[in-house]
């Protein structure tokens, strides 16, 4: 819009100057010359106003560009803050530890088929991924995990104990004690494994095997999330 006003003012200025020159040659009337001169001055003022308006509009355009740039930078900063929260304070927390018996003492097993052990006394269960009713840990976060378990054999002169850490029905690592005269042996094993969402991990007592526990809590099952993937 300011360009139209400026162009109109320029045309008026040119017309006035033309008329002024013509009148000066054909008529020496001072009053008419004065009017033409005033008109030309007004046209010059209009040109000046148009230029000023154009400058103001250009500045407004620049301010708008700067504002949009600031908005983009703010959005980028917000995304970076959210990513930082995810990597630090927003990191999922998953950890648990449990032992086999809540009270009393005695053997667990034997069972006719491989059976997940139910570690009923829970020391911690951050994230609630471990279910003491089933003995199964179910991954609620995709990531790399650490698991460890311990086993105490049954109290017979010839032990008969075999447990395996199992992922989705696949045996990973085991602890055995099925020979010898020492009936007070214990052992442990551990793994670091990747888990997808919904993967299940548990300790399985093998068929026709036994383990012993009492309030000293020899049989434990623990795990925690190392990092997400």
From TrEMBL:
UniProtKB keywords: Secreted, Signal
Compartments where found: Secreted
InterPro entries given in the database record: C1q_dom, Cerebellin_Synaptic_Org, Tumour_necrosis_fac-like_dom
Pfam families in the cross-refs: C1q
Chief subcellular location: secreted
Residues of the C1q domain: 89-229
GO CC, alphabetical: extracellular region
Signal peptide positions (record): 1-24
Domain of life where this protein originates: Eukaryota
Keyword Signal: yes
Keyword Signal on entry: yes
PANTHER family according to UniProt: CEREBELLIN 13-RELATED, CEREBELLIN-RELATED
Listed name of the protein: C1q domain-containing protein
Source organism of the structure: Esox lucius
